[in-house]
């Protein structure tokens, strides 16, 4: 197994690729001006954004290839592992990179809100695929940050650079929203698979064995990261995956409540609840009646 190279400081990354360190906590990398390097697996202690300037089909993550040609953006939060197994051959990287340390954001609104940018927790095969126009917008953001870094550090540097990073992230959020729309057919297929997954889950013994289905469980079964899955379902339907799970649960519960041979407690355990009172509370909240009241009204 390849060694994972750990880099906690941005200067370590710059030294590795041959990029000048203009600021200890933030850096823009134009890979076309960097030295040739060998593939490696790296764990980075800072936020990293890569804009790949190669045909997307040439980039392979896990078992999937990218399917767009215009350019691809990958977002990494501190502590994630990125890279390829070393094949022993040097290569010339292409594209751009933006590196910024969490310490650079401390005390800023972006530092407080950075977790709202869910794409830092997406998997590599859930990358952002850019049109040529979108790519131009992103590169302009890189240029603006680079220009500010080249001015030197003063009392305004952090405010201006953080504002430009936030602008770039907001553009990326807009472009991801566009991607969810333009990939509607793919999204509908995922939504259909999600609905089938829930249907089959409640028909099986899984609720009794492992409890109620979680968003993470469903995302893993669909080969998606929980955040990407959540954003996709929300954009496609207006409801979160948790709301879909709850709706399916209540739909299944209503059918089971008609079976008077089983007590409400038995039904609760069958559905995956550890405590029947939790089932009763949720059912009444969603339906307006307790399970017993719903059963009596249906019989009468």
UniProtKB/TrEMBL annotation:
HTH araC/xylS-type domain segment(s): 196-297
Record has Transcription as a keyword: yes
Keywords: DNA-binding, Transcription, Transcription regulation
Organism lineage: Bacteria, Pseudomonadati, Bacteroidota, Bacteroidia, Bacteroidales
PROSITE patterns linked to this entry: HTH_ARAC_FAMILY_2
Protein name, UniProt field: Helix-turn-helix domain-containing protein
One Pfam family cited in the UniProt record for this chain: HTH_18
GO molecular function: DNA-binding transcription factor activity; sequence-specific DNA binding
The species this protein was found in: Bacteroides faecichinchillae
């Amino acid at each position: 197994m390849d060694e994972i190279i750990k880099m906690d400081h941005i200067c370590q990354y710059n030294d590795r690729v041959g990029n000048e360190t203009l600021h200890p906590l933030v850096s823009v990398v134009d890979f076309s001006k960097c030295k040739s390097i060998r593939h490696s697996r790296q764990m980075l202690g800072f936020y990293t954004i890569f804009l790949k300037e190669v045909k997307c089909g040439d980039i392979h993550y896990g078992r999937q290839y990218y399917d767009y040609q215009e350019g691809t953006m990958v977002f990494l939060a501190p502590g994630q592992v990125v890279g390829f197994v070393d094949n022993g051959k040097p290569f010339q990287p292409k594209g751009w990179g933006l590196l910024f340390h969490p310490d650079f954001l401390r005390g800023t609104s972006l530092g407080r809100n950075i977790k709202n940018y869910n794409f830092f927790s997406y998997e590599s095969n859930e990358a952002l695929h850019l049109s040529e126009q979108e790519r131009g917008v992103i590169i302009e953001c890189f240029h603006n940050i680079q220009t500010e870094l080249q001015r030197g550090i003063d009392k305004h540097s952090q405010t201006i650079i953080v504002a430009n990073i936030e602008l770039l992230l907001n553009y990326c959020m807009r472009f991801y929203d566009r991607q969810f729309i333009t990939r509607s057919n793919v999204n509908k297929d995922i939504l259909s698979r999600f609905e089938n997954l829930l249907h089959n889950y409640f028909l099986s013994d899984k609720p009794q064995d492992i409890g109620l289905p979680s968003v993470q469980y469903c995302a893993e079964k669909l080969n998606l990261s929980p955040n990407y899955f959540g954003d996709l379902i929300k954009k496609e339907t207006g409801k979160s995956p948790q709301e879909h799970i709850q709706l399916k649960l209540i739909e299944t519960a209503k059918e089971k409540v008609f079976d008077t041979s089983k007590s409400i407690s038995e039904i609760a355990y069958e559905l995956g609840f550890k405590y029947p009172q939790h089932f009763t509370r949720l059912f009444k909240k969603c339906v307006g009646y307790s399970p017993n009241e719903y059963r009596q009204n249906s019989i009468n």
